[in-house]
Write a structure and sequence with these properties.
Elements: H1 11-14, H2 22-30, H3 46-86, H4 88-91, H5 95-123, H6 129-163, H7 166-172, H8 175-199, H9 207-214, H10 228-271, H11 278-317, H12 327-351, H13 353-363, H14 384-387
Helix pairs in contact: 3-5, 3-12, 3-13, 5-6, 5-12, 6-7, 6-8, 6-10, 6-11, 10-11, 11-12, 12-13
Length: 395
């Protein structure tokens, strides 16, 4: 607005404020255009428009990213479950029952936990009440713990299959024991999630701080803060103890695989590669299969640790530094963990030939090009190696 020359008493009238025209003054005051700078000039609106545009672009990008994570997690885990249900060969492998249960846990994360976390992250406000906040938090802890316990059971299953004899594996991994292990993967997380959170054991001693953060500013937040005993107990049971068991199991698997590989190499050098009998050939094929299976599961476990380790490290450290971890860092660590629910089906598709073939059959409506060829041929009989479930796992 250009300046105008006027007597001092006509200042308001010159700049559009007319005491005799209240209908003109209202809208101007509402939109804040009458705030003058120290020089008597109108402020520039370009900066405000730029900030609004940047904020809108960030919101759209955030919504797109979170929606992609949730959609891929739902579709991928459903695909894993359907593949095992429809493929008879996959159903014969005991390890795949743990994988189906793991996919079910990840599916529940993407359906029951992620959407409400995304809404709160976008709107910066929790509108579903305190009770549902506790339920949602309990589900979060339950499903997170269930995922890593399933991976721990898978590593123990691989340990018995690779490091023990086939008969020992069949005796150890009976259907009843598999069912009990899967049941434990769900019961233990329930005990450390719903029971203490609903009873408020995690908030003993820090209730005032929780209430202060819950109603900070003009918004309400679904705050989940834990005291030192709960942080240590929950993190050890849900992450650190299973992680140690998995590392030990896969270390033993790696040592055993290398020892078997050296034995096979010595037999081939002694008898000649062309004179190896069928038993040596079967042992060689089985060990290559088992070694690749162990590597595949190590990659899956490694991705889980990379996704969830930042959260559990922060969860233990935060109570000992007076809860000074920024909320943005908490949100980033939490969603990094949620991304793991999306990664498992992707890892199965790219690293597992059996799952990849089953996925293609489902997605291509059972096209004969992708159907499994007969391994044994018509009329052939199964050998001990072929009926051992570990032979076909994650080829």
């Amino acid at each position: 607005m250009r300046g105008c020359k006027f007597p001092e008493e006509d200042f308001d009238s010159c700049h559009g404020f007319d005491p005799r025209a209240p209908h003109r003054n209202g809208p101007l005051r509402i939109y804040g255009y009458m705030n003058l700078s120290s020089t008597g000039q109108m402020p520039e609106m370009e900066e405000v428009d730029t900030n609004e545009s940047n904020g809108l672009a960030k919101t759209v990008a955030l919504i797109s990213f979170l929606s992609l994570v949730m959609l891929m997690s739902v579709l991928g885990n459903l695909l894993v479950m359907v593949a095992v249900c429809k493929d008879r060969q996959l159903r014969k492998i005991k390890t795949n029952y743990f994988i189906v249960s793991l996919a079910f846990a990840d599916l529940l994360v993407s359906v029951l936990v992620m959407p409400f976390g995304a809404i709160e992250l976008i709107h910066q406000n929790w509108i579903y009440g305190e009770t549902f906040c506790l339920v949602r938090t309990s589900l979060d802890v339950l499903l997170t713990t269930a995922s890593i316990l399933h991976l721990c059971c898978i590593s123990l299953d691989r340990y018995y299959a690779i490091c023990c004899q086939p008969l020992v594996y069949r005796n150890k991994m009976t259907p009843l024991r598999v069912a009990l292990m899967i049941g434990g993967c769900w019961i233990i997380p329930t005990v450390i999630s719903f029971l203490p959170i609903m009873q408020g054991w995690n908030s003993i001693g820090i209730n005032d701080l929780i209430e202060k953060r819950k109603f900070s500013g003009n918004s309400t937040s679904c705050v989940f803060m834990v005291n030192k005993p709960y942080a240590l107990t929950c993190s050890v049971v849900a992450f650190y103890l299973p992680l140690i068991l998995m590392v030990l199991a896969y270390q033993r698997i790696y040592i055993t695989a290398r020892a078997h590989a050296r034995q096979i190499s010595m037999l081939q050098r002694a008898g000649g590669a062309g004179n190896a009998d069928s038993a040596d050939h079967q042992r060689n094929h089985r060990m290559r299969t088992e070694t690749k299976a162990a590597k595949t599961l190590c990659i899956i476990m490694g991705c889980f640790c990379l996704c969830w380790a930042p959260f559990f490290i922060t969860n233990v450290v935060d109570p000992f530094i007076d809860y000074s971890v920024p909320e943005q860092l908490w949100a980033a660590c939490l969603w990094l963990g949620y991304i793991n629910s999306m990664l498992n089906p992707i890892l199965y598709a790219f690293l597992n030939k059996s799952f990849r073939r089953a996925f293609l059959i489902i997605l291509c409506c059972g096209h004969k090009r992708y159907r499994r060829p007969s391994i044994l041929g018509p009329g052939a009989t199964c050998t001990a190696t072929q009926i051992n479930g570990s032979t076909h796992v994650l080829k």
